[in-house]
User: Fold these one by one.
Assistant:
Number 1:
Amino acid sequence: MNKIQMVDLHNQYLKIKKEIDDAVINVIESCAFINGPEVKSFQEELQNYLNVKHVIPCGNGTDSLQVSMMALKLKPGDEVITTTFTFIATAEVIALLGLTPVLVDVDPQTFTMDTEAIKKAITPKTKAIVPVHLFGQCADMEAILKIAKEHNLFVIEDTCQAIGADYKFSDGSVKKAGTIGNAGGVSFFPSKNLGGYGDGGAIFTDDDDLATQLRYMVNHGMTIRYHHDYIGVNSRLDSIQAAILRIKLRYLEQYNKARQESAKKYNELFANCDKLTVPYIADYSTHIFHQYTLVTKNVDRNALQKHLNDKGIPAAIYYPIPLHKQKAYLDPRYKSGDFPVSEMLCDSVISLPMHTELDDEQIKFIAESVLEFL
Ligand SMILES: *Cc1c(COP(=O)(O)O)cnc(C)c1O
């Protein structure tokens, strides 16, 4: 059996090695390292894939969220509602810009923002909602858009874990995750569903004016060469990453399908276990399984993780601490127990290896090792 990894980037690379190697060498020979033709081509191909008007490449997923808030002209003191059950980057950029993160709990099935909780969190200072499409499944965007419209709020989708997921509206129309709100930010960190071989990110929007502002923001607030009308940042996707991402974008659907197949196999193997809840798939979204995350019940989760590690199976806890309990984010507005679903999830979730190269033998061994412990 091949060595089991949380994410198997090396075996994935070997299957497309020639294409990748040629693309990287081409960029090096062209010496167009920054804003070269590869970046433009990737941008256009991603626009086509997502069916969105504008893709603005940037340096990483964290920046994609930060520059979205900057381009939307959010100001210190503005409140931004997001989830307490997410990766820190979501709240970090809100705090860094002097905005006030307002946290809400998540739905116990989808792990995405509880839309009733969003309604309760709105104040006259609220300016934006940042839903996170966690683990590869969309937040309940139709409900979120409705709330945003009623209260005149921006919606910035954290799509870092869900590129390629489809959101289905009740009228039957379908949009790609990240193209639904005012802006969507994505990360091309190597382990993401569309990952480069280094850092990278992008923002998606259908709004022409916002796209213009976003392009200024990622490039030092520069409107005309050396004319800086805004305070921006330096956030670029480099050409080598773009060349690699162009190739991997062609495989993204196939990669996401492979993850879905693996998830299905895990689900079957866990079907009769009452100590585990397998990932729920909402009827409004596809799930592209950035993570395959189980909720354990009456299980010593940390001992389970150790048991798996001892057998050579990596397993991870995404996430062990909700944002409102993170040291740097402690806030008198929030206390332990305020977000019971997120707190329960932090204590009970465990994510199993999930990537494009998992084979049946590995999945069976992983699942049997989990069941053997329970
Ligand atoms: C990965 C991730 C980010 C940050 O992306 P980087 O490219 O690492 O900056 C932000 N939000 C979520 C939910 C993520 O998973």
Number 2:
Amino acid sequence: MARNLSAYDATTLREVWAARRMSLTPYDRSGVWRFRELIAPLDLDEMTARGEGNTGLYPADALARWVGVASLHLKHEGENPTGSFKDRGMTAGVSVARRLGASTVACASTGNTSASLASYAAIAGLGCLVLVPAGQHTSAAKLSQALAYGAKTLAIHGDFDRALVLVQALASELDLYLLNSVNPWRLEGQKSIMYETLEALAWDAPDWIVLPGGNLGNTSAFTKALLEMYELGLIARLPRIAVVQAAGASPFAASYAGGWARLQPVRADTIATAIRIGDPVNHPKASAGVRALDGVVTTATDTEIMDAKALVDRAGIGCEPASAAGIAGLRKLRREGEIAADARVVAVLTGHLLKDPAATASYHAGAAEYANPPIEVDADEDSIRAALGAL
Ligand SMILES: *Cc1c(COP(=O)(O)O)cnc(C)c1O
């Protein structure tokens, strides 16, 4: 397909994208399809969209002080329709699935991918099969979304990495269109997080973009988007990128620490179930992207993750545990001097506070550093006065 180069001129793109925000067409207003020149060459009637993207970018001054940087903005991807950034990838992936004539879409998931795919498949009228780890490692909130949207849901006696191997092995035999982040259209949709963020910053790139890393789809998508924006002249300089893994699921961080040594899969374990991944499929693309942006990869322990989450929550924004890994890692990189005190930082919160209520409730019920435990009182005025007096 011959590309009309003038349509990719930076000034033209900025104007076209800004104008679409005023449009009444759902695809123009979508925070993904508004940027469609850089996402996927589909016709509008092929798209399955439900108002994804257009998420908030919040200044977080108290959190910036806690972390120790001059400026911190939180891009809250939990504000997507099913509560995580996965919707940006799924609107692209499911639209392409329809175009290709697929009848059933499928994924392995730690929870959010299945919640999102189940919703978009229902809208598109496609069959949907999801494989999630059985038991405590999939949050009840996420599992309930997949069930409610009507996906055929297999809770397997194995972890996410095993589920992904199985669904990949069976995809062609069962004629399934696979929508894990091995699917390149997912990543194309997720690039819009960076377009939207940079547009909101008037195309003035921050010093750092910080995000959690699990299967490394976002790491791949963000670095690709930033390099494309730089190449097209939409931004005048490249930010650096900091990827944060949970300490118990950190093969990418280990590869980085070993001078980009060959990635050694691990048996993953962390409270941040969305990044409980030991063999990230996107690591080749992600490592190329991190290198191109002079990026860093680090880890955060579960305690650091949950303390950071408590402060993101208390700031009035809120996120699920995996999202807070980014903030915990940012604080660590700042303390180690990797990130400077005068840095301008954007951290991406990947999922909504309500995605994992059990993790939040158990943090606040315990003796954690920032716990805000509920106070049980008898149902009379004196008891309430006594309880408040003791505060
Ligand atoms: C999927 C997910 C991640 C991990 O993202 P990758 O692109 O796989 O690295 C992090 N946080 C949340 C909330 C997620 O749903």
